[in-house]
Amino acid sequence: MAGSANEPNPFDPFGLAAAMNEWCCLLKAAQELRDVDQEMMETMMAADDPAPAALSPEAATKLRSIAKMMRSLDLDPDAVRQRHPEAMRQLEAACLGCQNRSRCARELWAGTAGVTHPDFCPNAARLDQLRHA
Description:
The protein is 68% helix and 0% strand. The protein folds into 2 domains: 15-48; 56-133, no CATH class. The protein has helices spanning 16-48, 57-72, 77-83, 85-96, 101-110, 113-116, 124-131. α2 (57-72) packs across α4, α2 packs across α5 (101-110) and α3 (77-83) crosses α4. It is mostly helical. It is elongated and about 75 Å long.
């Protein structure tokens, strides 16, 4: 006959196995939430600008980010592409190599990127030049 839930497990008198099991469940739930959050972020970003089909999903997301960043600074990405194609290529190349994607996405989502971009964006100087051109 099995012991009741209140009796200590003779093989785990301190309850470490149960605590570890609960911890693992919490970690799994946190990972699932992070995955859902990332999917939602990508879905929200994809709804604004369709990405070119030839790009990887990650590259397409990054290029949508530069367009959103430009709009947050009152720059029209299409107009910049027409008037300054080389500048737009440089912006896109820097964005593709950016290591601050999660911060960029958070700031864009929060609506604060227009103010905070100099702190993290590798395109900050180029974007400011375009704003003042």
